[in-house]
Design goal:
This protein has 203 residues and is mainly alpha-helical. It has one domain (7-192): Helix Hairpins, CATH 1.10.287. It contains two helices and two strands, in the order αββα. The protein has a two-stranded antiparallel ribbon with strand order 1-2. α1 (7-68) runs antiparallel to α2 (121-202). The protein is rod-shaped, with a radius of gyration of 35 Å. It starts with 6 loop residues before the first helix and ends with a helix.
């Protein structure tokens, strides 16, 4: 984009450069913060998945025995006793980004006859509820990553715009205007000297 080669434009470019250089560290800090938080959330998701795997592991042997026993039909599947009622989420804020925060998972109260289920049914229900809770927490964290990732992309674009375009552009414009003004001043001095010589000659 062409710029006017004037002192006013030079001042305008210098003011813009100061503004870019003042905002850039804030954007860089925000970018680092977002990257750090996203990494922490990814680690948290990995930990939850491991915990969920353990909970499922404790159920495997029981469920296989339960499934192989012909005296229990599909109507008495333990999964039917664990039905999610509500997922409650709050709102958090990280680096100016509103994110969902997991608060509570509630289940429907489904009564069952202990005589119709194996002895481990209570522990099984607890384990299944834990698995469902991990699912809800992981999904919420994934939503956080999605929102923070979007903000990170925008912030990175701004950092790149300032670093690679706006700041170098302003510096180059200031340099060009400076050279032009310097040349004009030199030319004015030369013209002044020539005019003076002519006046002296004529005198």
């Amino acid at each position: 984009m062409a710029v006017k080669l004037t002192k006013n434009e030079q001042k305008k470019q210098k003011d813009s450069l100061k503004q870019f250089q003042r905002y850039l560290p804030t954007l860089q800090l925000k970018k680092q913060q977002l990257q750090s938080v996203i990494r922490q959330i990814e680690i948290q998701i990995e930990e939850y998945r491991l915990e969920q795997k353990k909970a499922i592991g404790t159920l495997q042997s029981w469920i296989s025995v339960f499934g192989e026993n012909p005296s229990f039909d599909t109507l008495h599947s333990i999964e039917k006793l664990v039905v999610v009622d509500t997922i409650r989420k709050g709102i958090g804020n990280i680096a100016g980004v509103k994110i969902p925060v997991f608060e509570e998972l509630t289940f429907e109260n489904i009564p069952y006859d202990l005589y119709e289920y194996p002895l481990w049914v209570d522990r099984g229900i607890v384990a299944l509820k834990d698995c469902a809770k991990f699912d809800a927490m992981i999904k919420t964290l994934e939503e956080q990553i999605s929102l923070l990732g979007k903000e990170l992309r925008t912030t990175t674009q701004r950092v790149n715009l300032f670093e690679k375009v706006k700041i170098p552009e302003a510096k180059e414009n200031i340099r060009r205007i400076g050279i032009y003004i310097g040349d004009q001043q030199t030319a004015a001095v030369v013209r002044g000297k020539i005019a003076k010589k002519k006046l002296v000659k004529e005198g």
